[in-house]
């Protein structure tokens, strides 16, 4: 399947996920205003963190090694048995810890103990989320983009239905609860889709400890967990800083613009992870990798530039449609945010090389350095420019990250060229 066809399928899946997310944002804006949207960001940061931790952060590793071993049944069986053992073990540990510390998490994150029961539901949902992540990673590793898209569309439809149902009863609390349950519901769609696939084997469901495969997956777990921990924690720190400086209403404006970016960038980032990562993992020669980079840039970059320009031109309407008139001050934040989005996608195309080729140490160091630089830049620019400084910091940080990834990619491709010359 080529990049264009894969992108069509992922675009359909992303549209369904986007609709589900926009329904929740609209409901929260309706029930709780800018302050509620600001706190929604905190809760969703926790959800994204636990969603990755639920499966031990091995999804990228499963995608990579399934793509490599799909024609080697013995190694594939070993890999998937170890992956299932790893994912379920991690989900039980994370679920238990979340359950034990649910009051502290609710108070620290949302400043309200009434959300303790919601954190407890999230703790129990960890097992279902881990299994859903495992199934999606296997389907993705086999490059079955069509089936992956169907699962995502079905899961998103169930999520929207649950949001509409629970919000009628429980309003804001119901919308947040639906977010939690919706992630676990993906299992109800993913399992039958995977079971009917031509590559499904019952042996893929046999858990086993395999030292070699667990070590391989642990490398990706380390990389993914580093990213999963740092990004939400930095965003939580930024929200807390903005709330301290300007109040939660101003945080809501910043969060609104960030959510708009997250929404339209889903089309690009989903296509990158569904098609691009397994492709990079399966290509080992310099010419092939360079060709994949060129194809990605020719397709993804014009797409995100056009989307960013369209959103900027219609920013007043976008804010009113997705939120309400109370969010009008957010319109002044779109310019630097959208510029940062374009640079972010340009850097992501190259950064996936570190994941695909398991550059563990470099990936972890870069994640730590650029997470801290983002936080530092936000503090500096907010002190100088006010709330808009937060989006200035976002754009500048991704510019630095892009430069870093250009250097990494050039050195890696240069190393392959020297190796090919020595061993023709």
UniProtKB/TrEMBL annotation:
Keywords: Cell membrane, Membrane, Transmembrane, Transmembrane helix. It comes from the Bacteria. Signal peptide: none annotated. It is found in: Cell membrane. Its main location: membrane. Pfam families: Polysacc_synt (PF01943). CDD domains: MATE_like_10 (cd13125). The chain crosses the membrane at residues 7-31, 43-67, 79-101, 113-136, 148-166, 172-194, 214-238, 258-277, 297-314, 334-355, 362-382, 388-408. It is a multi-pass membrane protein. InterPro entries: Poly_Biosynth_Transport, Polysacc_synth, WzxE. The keyword Cell membrane applies. This is O-antigen translocase. It comes from Dyella koreensis.
